Amino acid sequence: MFRFEELQNAVADNFKRKKGIRLFNVFPLDCIPIETLKSWTFKPTCMPLQYQTQAEAFANFKVREDDIWIVTYPKCGTTWAQEMTWMLVNDMNFDEANSVDLTERSIFFEVEGIAPTDKCEVLELLNKQKSPRVIKTHLPIGLLPRDIWLKKCKIMYVTRDPKDMIVSYYHQMNNIVSCNMSIEEFVECILTDNMIYSSFWNHVLEFWLIRNKFNVLFFTYEDMKRDLEGIIGKTSTFLEKDYNAKQISLLMEHLSFKNMKATPTCNNESLVKMIYSAYKLEYDEKTAFKFMRKGLIGEHKKELTPYCIVRINAKTKEMFEPYGLNLYT
Ligand code: PPS
Q1: What is the pLDDT of residue 18?
Q2: Annotated catalytic sites, by residue?
Q3: What's the whole-model pTM score?
Q4: What is the pLDDT of residue 6?
Q5: Which atom of ligand 1 is nearest to the CA of 168?
Q6: Domain boundaries, the chain
Q7: Pocket lining: 145 vs ligand 1, CB cutoff 6 Å
Q8: Could you tell me the pLDDT band of residue 19, with boundaries at 50, 70 and 90?
């Protein structure tokens, strides 16, 4: 079903030399049954070598009609949306949220395809998980399970200002994968689709184009920051759930950056530990990457040069404007 082509460029060399990771472009081959996207060209997605062993299993994964898929490009607000959705789906079960790790409550679909591990357990875990499942993924449409479009599962798509996303992604990659790039080099990689998960802009556009389908909810990290209550309301309606004002106020407190950062079951520390272990890095509490980093809008202004900002804005305009998406420029 897929074709793989090894990436031959400076980024791929860097990953191979520093971490022994070989990067491949994954080309989706068969057509995707979405009428709205019939004239859309699905682009290849950059993935590490081990993705190949599971690509077919991911594409053929048996989804359930009541699955809820949280889809994002990395660092766009996935964890925040996962926690909100899990709470809304599970009758605001604060006890479970505070005692069971989010990585177990809401499983990261393709994690074994991106972190260097020989394990193939996640799909089995998903098969055993009770319904309705809240599943995290960063896969673009061309690599998602085909069944999603036939079963019409609910899809929640979250995006974020690419400038803030890049800064967030840079810190994670630099710290965990030790890619040893300058932030300028990292920006260049993202602008030229040479990073794991490839093009941010194509990723967003695919879901923007299907945003009006009844089973899709499209919103932004900035929407959550500026009006969390409004997004909780929209998500509740989308999930056909009804909560009173007191419950919503407790949920807002639970979802605050301060609370999620301080709560071990919500702050993704276990995911970071898992990635450190997969990359055979020693985990030191004091120096380790903090997943809940800043949680702000506009932090890029402190870290990106004006030239980088201009270039990212130009790319965003060039990619988004033809599709009527007027965000982030
Ligand atoms: S990942 O690795 O792709 O799943 O990361 P993702 O969860 O998409 O994005 C991580 C960024 O989201 C911020 N975050 C939050 N911001 C505000 N409020 C809450 N509750 C919250 N939870 C997570 C997190 O801090 C990362 O952003 P940066 O800019 O790095 O701080």
Answers
A1: 79
A2: 138
A3: 0.97
A4: 96
A5: 30
A6: 59-323
A7: no
A8: confident
